[in-house]
Every structure is written in structure tokens, then in C-alpha cells.
Amino acid sequence: MNTNATNISAEATKITELESQFVYTNGEITSVADALATSITTTATSAAGSVAADLDKLEAVFSFDSSGDVDGTNGVLSTAVTSSANAAIANAALASAQSVTDLTSTVDGHTSSLSIQAGTLSTVEGYVESRYVVNLNAGGAVAGMSILAQDGTTSDPYSEIRFLADKFKIFNNGTAGDASDFDAPFEVSGGVVKIKTAHIGDISFGDISDAPATTFTSVVYASDASGTSPSFTKGTRTFYAIYQGATQIDLTSSSAIAALTFNQITGSTGSSGADAKTIKLSSDALVIKYDSEGNNPDPSSITLTANSTNFTNGFFKFTGGGSIFTDEASYTDGTAANQDTATITVPTTFSGFGSPLAMRVGVAEGDQVESGNHNHCKTHHNSLIQTSHNIWQG
Q: pTM above the 0.70 mark?
């Protein structure tokens, strides 16, 4: 009984202390006592002060318009993020491993990023693949590289390297530490491959059966890199371009001139000379086709046409036909002042054709009387020019 009385007395004391923390009206709690009210107020004030201080720091980072809305930042906000992930999967069907690394940097809204992905894959069907990819992005300027090697049960082993860039260059012969000293002999820019110097061994062409019967190669001169005042004559012009096409270029066509790439002529400019005397040899066919039995040539004859320029009365001589074409022994008057033709009769069998023909034509000013290694002209001028043309059997 004494123990119960003691416990009841202790609980009564605690209830009395608790009741002292509140104010009652008609037996209902209407407020807290002064001591508890002071404690609650102090705690709330302290918490509010901490929140206000944090808000002041956050507001100091931003700027606000007249309506109190955020319209910018004060100072510079920057972030730098790096992440790396590696994964490996292996089961009865496949095995793969992958590594991904991402780097991102942002300063005041300007972002650059770098992503590197490497992976391998092998499947139970026999397909294997290795891949390495690098992607770079700097404010919208992108560059990348992809290396792939793969082999499958239904395809031959295959590999490739791809590059993505506005310009692709190979440098050499530079000085270490001096980027401006490196030379780029090979460059790809704007869809154009540029090779400064090249040493080429054997060149093999595929089917040339669709080659044009006539090809033109001309040097076009201009006053500047834009092709101003184009002409076949150099004169005082200091830029040049090489034109090649099935038809001669029209110098009055602005689009045709714009398609050329003009380069500056190096070296000192000499005095203007006389217009050049030239000759061009063309044929109405470059390739002769025979059937599977080596018969029925197509075409059965070829017409060669020689066109010269700046000759008053051109005399022409065709040679180089071997046993198929009888070389002309002397210069003869052309069909026009600057034109002449010759006809080759094609052998009726493939075996009769022999080696490819290398036809040549020479043009002289006026009739030429040849004696030994000397050319004697009946006129007062002795101008002799030769050019050549190849004909193949298919």
C-alpha cells in the first residue's frame, strides 16, 4: 500500500507541474504560461532568423525586375560534372562489357561536353564486336570519332574508322610546341579534298565505257580569286583555275566561273606575250567494244579531230596508229585553217587490235618540208605543236 501511495503522489506532482505550464478558463486550456511561451517564441525566432539568412544568400545570387521576378544572375554561376560508368554482362547467350565517361562544364549558360564510350560484345551465334566512340560538343560545334571492328557468322570481318569535323587535317614536319609551324599536306574541308603534294604509284581505272567522246582541259585566268574578268589568255591576270569537262567552259557563264577554284600565280609577272598557238586532239570514241567471241567491233571506225588555235593556215600530220593506221609522212593542209580530221578503221577481231593506240597530231604554220631533224617552213614562221590521244580496246 505504501508503494502505491508513493507512486500516486509522484504522478500527481508531475500533473501539477504540467498544469502550471498552461492557463485555464472554465477548465479549458486557453493559452500557455509565460515560461513556456517565452521558450516557444525564442525557438521560432531563432529558426526564422536562420531561414531568412539563407534566403538572403540565395537572393544575392539573382537579380530581379520591377515586379520582383528573377531576370538574371549576379556574378557567374558555374558547374562542372564528371561521371563514369562501367558495366559487364555475361550469360549463356552473350558477353558484353561497356565503359562510359561523360564530362560536362557550364559557365553562365555556356556548356561544353565530352563523351567517351567503349564496348565489346560477343554472342553465342558467333557475332563479335569492338567499338570505341568519342563525341565532343562545345556550344554547338561538334567533333567525333568512331572506331569499329566486327565479325559475324553471315558476314566477312569488317572494320572502319569514321571522323566527324568541319575540317580534317594530317600534319607533319612541324616544330614541337609551335602549332603554327606544322604543315598539313592533306586536308578535307567543305566537302573538298585538298592535297598539296602527292607521290602516286600505279593508278587503276574501272569501266571507262561511259567516258565522253571529247574532253576539254583548259586553263582559265582571272584577275582575282573570285574569277573576275575570266579569259583563256593570261595577259595581266594573276590567278588561274584548271577546267575539265565534256564541253568547253563558257566564260560568260557566272555559275560556271563560280564553280572553279582560282589560285594565285606565283613568281614574278613577266611582260605580256603573243597569244599561244595550241592544238587539241579529240575522237568520237575512246573505247572499242568486241563481243564475247572477239568479233563485231563497236564502233567499226573512229574519227579523230584536231583543232588548233591562232594558226593562220594550219597544216596537220597524224601518227601513232601502228599497224592499224598508216602514219602520215608529211604535213598536209587541213580541212579548215585550224582543223583537220583522220579516220581509223578498227580491226574486225579483238586479237587484231594489239596494244592500245597512242595517236599523235602535229600542226605547223603553213606547208612544212622536212629534211632530217629540221623543219623548213615555206612561210616566214616556223611554229610546230604536237599533242596525243589514247584509244583502248574493251
A: no
